[in-house]
Amino acid sequence: MSKPLPQARRRLALCAALVIGAWIAPAYADPKVLAKVDGVDITDNDVNDAMADIGPGLPEKLVGAEREKYVLDYVIDLKLVAKKAYADKLDQTPDYARHLAYFRDKLAMEALMGGVAKEAATDDAAKKAYDAAAAAQPPEPEIHARHILLATEDDAKKALARVKGGEDFAKVATELSKDPAGEGGDLGWFTKDRMVPEFSVVAFKMAPGQISDPVKTQFGWHIIKVEETRMKTFPPYDQLKEQAMRYVSQKAQSDMITALRDKAKIERFDEPAKPAAPADAAAPAPAPAAADAPKTP
Known about the structure:
There is one protein chain. This protein is α+β, with helices and mostly antiparallel strands. It folds into two domains: 114 residues, no CATH class; 95 residues, Chitinase A, domain 3. The protein has eleven helices and six strands. The strands form two sheets. Strands 4-3-6-5 form a four-stranded antiparallel beta sheet. β1 and β2 form a beta hairpin. The longest helix is centred in the middle third of the chain and has 27 residues. It starts with 6 loop residues before the first helix and ends in a 15-residue tail after the last helix. The N terminus and C terminus are likely disordered.
């Protein structure tokens, strides 16, 4: 729907979008205590946070109450192991401090990105994005066709003689066609730009039920049968509303990242420095000395 974003920023926006739900979902006003570990409460909010963290990696067959029980057990183990780690003073090491700083930044980023996405995802913004995309893709002809692909023109003519003699086109295609894709030579629905020009020029001039003479392309010789024609139109807004909402949310996130980068002083040291230009090429030619300057008569 817009100019592609640089890879790094697009990846960052996508990662942040994946955690939007965890930040914009309302927290329980009165958290329910699900367990206690040495007197410390574990609430449903704790389990929800853990579910957002480890849930995507759990087996799909682990569902419902079993999934919730698994995550609660995980949080209980997390509390026990963390308590032991604190007792062993592992939270006082340089590695711990570095990891903690990273995850603090990550959580802050997710909170901000989630807020930006929530603010951007309005019905008006999504509808405008949809309208722009729809305007960029006006209706265009689309056909449903079959073909028989053969290596030589003689083979194509023999196949054509069979279908013109009354044999079922799909049956002949199944027996003879060199194209393994599409049962009975079925190519499905396609627009003109989806096929090589030699094929499309012929196919899009044909009426439903018509069978072509042999057509040569880079793939071989084709016999084409057009089954149906229609105008391809852009899907209605109701079908794409959710996609449009995601688009405006991620675009707002990416725009914010771009604005922050533009204002920041960013120095990169992960790439080799570019070689300096040769001194004679970089320096301007010296001006003539006063004594050598041309004299006026």
